[in-house]
Amino acid sequence: MPDFSSYNFSGRKALIRVDFNVPLNDKFEITDDTRMRAAVSTIQKILKDGGSVILMSHLGRPKDGPTNKYSLKHLVAHLSKLLNGTKVEFADDCIGQEAVDKAKSLKPGDVLLLENLRFYKEEEKGDKEFAKKLAALGDVYVNDAFGTAHRAHASTAVIADYFPADKKLFGLLMENEVKSAEKVLKSAEKPFTAIMGGAKVSDKILLIENLLEKADNIIIGGGMSYTFFKAQGGEVGNSLVEEDRLNTAKEILEKAKAKNVRILLPVDSIIADKFDANANTKEAENKSIPSGWMGLDIGKKAREEFRKVILESKTILWNGPMGVFEMDKFQGGTKAVAEAIAEATQKGAFSLIGGGDSVSAINQFGFADKVSYVSTGGGAMLEFFEGKELPGIAAINK
Ligand code: AMP
Question: What integer is the mean pLDDT of 241-249?
Fold first, then answer.
């Protein structure tokens, strides 16, 4: 695969799969442009080289073809602004005559944005004919959509078959995501600590199993920790428990022991008398939470213990909050972990934050620039760390 930074795009039409799946409010204003900003460096490099750019993306989950609500035309003005005023052409359909004509007439420095790919069912089905039509619009294919790299869709994977090996490559964002993830998964400096949190064990089983092969320490906090306590005979009151995963939790603990991986569960919790921002709260040991009460954040002793382990680590992966961080009363544990990761990073550790809610948390607490890497791809990063081969990556490497 050619290296993006040393590739010369001069005179070429680069067809870039970006992830512009941004949230819009009911006035079609973009409420968070992180994903658009993440693609700017890739676009600018191609334009600076003297190439032109054709951007394709999905937006939302349109069910029945074109709808104004999911039109990418709402992004044109803001994209132009992000590109320092460069005019952005728009094609009302991602394939067909208009797209072909507009792509053909692009000159060096020009930018064309295509309408939502998911207005065609063929996109998610990975239809070959549809992919071929998209491929015909450009002469180099750049995949910069890490957020959809775990999908074998027409524009993320199938399309790569229509470009020769020297004309398909990752964009800068994708390159960074893959490099950072590989650094953790394939060449982690030890001790390697993985921090898992969030609501459910069932969502994270494959992730934990794969990390049992790699990590020295696995910290388990958040709602999922109560299933582990219950599995060991603890009283967890009304805390979140997945009854059908008690055996899984036991098996994970046994495997960890056999593999000499240290699993750290929170010794205490901030407990509440209801799932509510204004609930009454107190502290409790996790093996004996009174009935009628539920653990909604890790406690002070747990924070201190986790902090020590984090500070001794050279590689840190974090996925999932330690508590219901959306409510002020229960965000202390997640904040303490974010702080410890920032401190460890300052001391030279490599830290990667992956997964939707830990990314929101790190942004909310203002630590995003104090960690090594914050991933843009929740689901894709999760699958990468589960050890799966992502179709979007495989298609280019092939
Ligand atoms: P996930 O999407 O699995 O990473 O889960 C994130 C969600 O887990 C967040 O919305 C948190 O509010 C929630 N969560 C974290 N800790 C707890 C807990 N102790 N009880 C209930 N929900 C929790």
Answer: 96
Note the pLDDT tens digit of each residue in 98-134. Answer: 999 999 999 999 999 999 999 999 999 999 999 999 9
State whether 376 and 276 are in the same domain: yes
Whichever domain contains 338, its CATH number is 3.40.50.1260
Give the model's pLDDT for residue 287. 85
What CA–CA distance (Å, rounded) separates 122 from 154?
7
Same domain flag for 229 and 258: yes
CA of 227 from ligand 1 middle (Å) equals 13
Q: Under a CB-based contact definition with an 8 Å cutoff, are residues 310 and 346 in contact?
A: no
Residue 277 has pLDDT above 80, yes or no: yes
Among 372, 312, 361, 368, CA closest to 336: 361
Catalytic residue check, 392: no
The upper half-sphere exposure of residue 376, i.e. CA atoms within 13 Å in the direction of its Cβ, equals 26
- Of the chain, the end-to-end C-alpha distance in Å amounts to 9
Pairing of strands 294-298, 262-264: unpaired
Backbone angles phi, psi at 199, to 5 degrees: -75, -50
Task: Tell me if residue 379 is catalytic.
Answer: yes
- Ligand 1 atom nearest residue 295's Cα: 19
pTM exceeding 0.85? yes
Residues 243 and 318 in one domain: yes
Report how many domains make up the chain: 2
- Structural domain including 107 reads 13-174
**Are 4 and 171 within 8 A, CB to CB?**
yes
